[in-house]
Every structure is written in structure tokens, then in C-alpha cells.
Write a structure and sequence with these properties.
Chain A is an alpha/beta fold and 360 residues long. Helix content of chain A is 46%, strand content 18%. In chain A, strands 1, 2, 3, 4, 7, 8, 9, 10, 11, 12, 13 and 14 form a twelve-stranded mixed β-sheet that branches. The longest helix of chain A is centred in the N-terminal third of the chain and has 27 residues. Chain A is globular. Chain B has 293 residues and is mainly α. Chain B has two domains: 40 residues; 232 residues, Orthogonal Bundle (MetI-like fold), CATH 1.10.3720.10. The chains are: A alpha/beta (360), B mainly alpha (293). Chains A and B meet through β9, α9 and α16 of A and α3 and α11 of B.
Amino acid sequence: MMLSRRSLLASAAALTLPAIARAQGAAAFKGQTLTIASWQNYGADDPGTLQMFEQQTGASVKQVYFTSEDDLLQMLRTGGTGKIDVVLPNLEYVLPAARQSLIQPIDTARIKSWSSLEPRFRDDPSIRYDGKVYAVPWVQGATSLAVNPAQVTPAPTSWDILWDPASKGKVGFFDDPTTAVMTAALYLGENPQAPDLQRVRKALLDLKRNVKLFWSSADDWNKAFLTGAITMGNLWSGLAGTLRANGHAVDFILPKEGTVLWGDTWAIVRDAPHADLAYAWINFATSTPYFTQWITHPGPNQELAVPVNTDAIKALPEAAANKLLAGPLVAYRGPIALQAGIAPAALKKWTELWEEVKAS
Amino acid sequence: MASRALRARLTGILLLLPAGLLLAVMVLIPLAVLVWFSFAPEGADAPLSLDSYARLFATPLYFHLAMKTMLTAGLAALLTAALGWAPAWVLSRLAPRARTATLLAIIVPYLTSYLLLIYSVFVILGPGSPVMVTLRLLGLAAPGASILYTQAATVVMLVYENLPVMVFVLFSGMQRIDTTLLAAAGSLGATRWARLRHIILPMAAPSLVSGLIIVFVPMGGAFVEPAILGGPNGLLLGNVIADQMTRADDPSFGSVLSLLLLLATLAIVALLAGLRPALHRLTSRWSDHVAPA
């Protein structure tokens, strides 16, 4: 009897210990305010997960929104460093930010999910500068081939379909220089990071003959695709998943030549006033509980994306994973054009090329 | 006497001062910045260079685009005038109370956000819309066809947006045409056509030219309409400028293209302004010709 009472006490103590630890963690950041710069309605300002973070740390969170990646860099250059703690740059912008020392190196030993991150992101040179890691990959998505299965049969397996003369006037193509050049490079069998721009230009001009619409927002795509004005094109995996979840017929294909992949990352700002809290945020935002809550119970208007943390993907309920097309994306082992690591001078050339193709 | 003249001149200068200052701050300084940007492709700190101009002259692309932009805006402006003429005339002949009500009705689309107007046109012109179905039933369009994502859709949109402005400007000129003048001409045997040619047209010419200029200038700089409705071949100079300023992050080349647009627009406006005396000469020559000796 005594023994059992003692064991009861022991187990009670064991139960309360984590609670005490949590309370101590909460006390550690009590009164601090973490300033996050990110996109609106994109994970960092999701009310459900924010509540979890604030309970865990005792800190509060202040949101700052940027409207483009350039806007983010500009924000950091003009007084953001020393005020903002943690930011969400796209993979393409980690190097420029590191080069201008707008963000600080990250001690990967302090990132709990580091070993669970997909190697194609974790090991990529685009998050490294001067031998140090500057960003923690967070979410990913593909910009790949999408077709209306009722009108495009049999289901294509190659980017060829967009260039096929029979596809004239049926193609919607994403209005973005990097995606355009990389997609054309994949189609041509060129190296997507450094393609022959003469060939790319010709291919994009050929493609333009088939294009009905250069789309730049989900709304652009939906209007044209759902009215049948276009039947195929390149599309964000997230949007394809949302359309399918809403009952629309869309086939999302990762073509044999390869697909364009993007990633968003967390980085800590130089002179961040709350660097430890920033680490706590990154650990939280890349954790399985965070992704499960965010993706299964997102706040209103939240735009979701596929985690880079493989454990988090495995933990997702099937319906939620399907909505994001997480399965095909993670399973995909074909060639990848990662939207990152393009030198500024090359990127400028790509942008000029794309502007000229559109203006021709 | 002299002091009074001096005072009058001083008053004149003082009266012009606020408008002059506003013009300097809002127009001349930004324009100067634009010119400066165009010579600073490497940013404000780097030495000035002609690189952005070299890029413009390296290809005929942007001149073709400027030409296409002016032609599109010109066509849209002429269509707006053609469509606005009759309503403006009817409006100018209405009794004051009916006139106010009609003016209000015309102003409603003008008070609506142009983005909403664009999306409403989107619905009206889309495949399966009433307009396209009617055209198909008349055998004028293939099933599933639509002018969406073509240059024509942009022109339709620009005309629709600017029609109220054109009607207002034409109306303000036409309302000054005395109906008794037309009655007198009629009693002297002038036909409808002769009255239009010798009375209405010369008297409305100044407002017609003003109307054309007022709608042409924003049409020439349009970029939202072609981006949403114009399709891959419908882009205008305004789209390329917007892209350079935002996504391409090249304000220098954007400034060069803006100056190109400015010069092209000024040339057309000068042409239109020159139209007024020409129109006047033309109608008065007709009058001389027709007038009995």
C-alpha cells in the first residue's frame, strides 16, 4: 500500500516535471517580444500556432509584413537590423542577405529538427556563405506541369506538351523570370542553373505562341483554368492541391525532364535583440506539432505549404498531406531545378531575357 | 498709373505662386529624378552612365512596343469619342432636371473602382458569357471563343473606363451650342448633315480635341488592363515599365522607358492639339464653300 502510494507520488512527480520545465521555459522569455518579418497569412501569423508558441515561451510576438523579397532586404537595410529578430527569406534571397550581412550565422546544433530536414534543402549550398549556415529550410513547393485531365489526354509526362503545336492558345504560364528560364532549360535538357540563354530565349519565344495567358496570381490562373480558357500550364503545387481539395479536376505532374522547386527559410537578423527567442521560434516553427496544427487547423486565409521536415510530413493526416500534394513532392526523385543560388548578374540577364520575350 | 500696373503684375505673380509651387514639387522634381535615374543604372552612389540608353537602342523591341502602345491608345481614344458623341449630344439637349439625373447615371461607372470594372468586363467577355453566346448564335463566333486575353479586350476595357470622361467633356462643349442656331439654319434650308458639319462640329471641335487628349494620356500609360485582359501579346509599354520598377528592380531602365513613353505621348498630344486649328480650317473652308456669295 505504502509502496503503491510512493509509486503514485513518483509518477505524479514525473508527470509534473515536464510541466515545471515548461513553466521555467515560459519564464525564460516572459516579457520579451519577438519581432517576425514574413508574408501575411503565411504561417507566422497563424493564430492557433501563435497561441502554442506564446504558451510555451511566455513571450509575445509582433508581426511585420513584407510584400516582396526585395522589400524584405530593403526593410533590413533601412533600420530593420537591431529591431527585427527573425525573417522568412526565400531560398533565392538567403545568399544576398548573408552577403550584405543582414542576417547572422546559425548554430545548427541548436536546431532540433536539423537532422530531419530533407537533405536536398539542408545540404544545398544556397543556405551557406563563407562556410557557415545562414538559414533553416522551412517549407517547399514545386512549380510544375498542371493539366485539365478532361481535356488533355493521355496524361502527359513531359514538358513537351506545352510546346506542342496542338496546345496553341491553351497554355497558362507563370510570369516569373527564374521559373520561366529554368522550365525552358529543363525542357531543353540544359543545366537549369546555367543554361544556354540563346536556346532558352528561342524556346520561350516558341512557347509564347501557345500561351494564352501569363499568370501572376492564383486568381489569374483560377479564372482562366476554371472557365476553360486554358487547359494546361505550369502551376504551384499548393494551388493545384487547393483546387483538387475544392473538387476541381487538375492533374499535377512532375515531368520526366525535372521540375522547378522553391523553398522558404527562417533566418536570424544581424544584431537581433532576442536571438535566443529567435532560436526558440525557429525550433517551434520547424517542429512536427507546429506543422500538424498549422496544416490541419489553419487560421482564416492562411496559405499552406509542404514542410521540409520529413518527420512533420509523416505525421500529417492523409487528407491534409494530399491537399498540399506533399506525398508526390517528397517522393519525387527526378531532376530538380532548385530556385536558388543564381548569381545576381545572371539573374539580371534572366530578367532582361524574360522581359524581352514578353515584350516581343 | 505705373504703380497700379506693377501691383497688378505682382498680384498676378502671387496668384500663380501656389499652383507654380505645386507644379514644381509634383511634376518637375519627379521628372528630374526620373531623368537622373535614367543615367544611374548602378544606383545612386555609382558614377553616371549611358548603359540604360544603350540597352534601349540595342533592340528595336521597345520602339515597336511604344508604337503599338500609341496605336492601341489612339484607337481606343477615337472609339471612345465615336461612342461618346451621341450620348453627349442628347445630354446637351435635355431639360436641366433630366440632364442631372442622366449625368448621375453616367458618372456611376466612373465612381467604381477600375479593378471592379475590369473584372466585370472579364465576366461579360468570358467564354459562355451572354455576349459570346449571342455572338455564337448569330454565327459570328466559334463555340468557346472569347476575345479575352487579346488586344481587343484591352481596347474594349479602355473605352469602357474612359467613356464617362469623354461624354462629360463633349457635353460641356455641346451644351453651349444654341438650339435656336440650329433652328435658324434649318429654316434657311440646311440639312441635318449640313447643320452637323457647319454648326455642331466646328463649335464642338475644341471639346472633342480636349476629350481625345484627356482620355488618350491615361490610355497610353495603362498597364493593369493589358496585364489582366490583354493576353501574352497584349502587353503595352506601361507593363514593361511596371515590371522594371518592381520585379526586375531596374529603376534606371524603367526610367528610360518612362521617358520614351512620355515623349511618344507628348508627340501624339501635340498632334491632337494641332488638330484643332486644322479642324477649324477644314470646317470654315466648307462653310466658305457652301455659303452663298
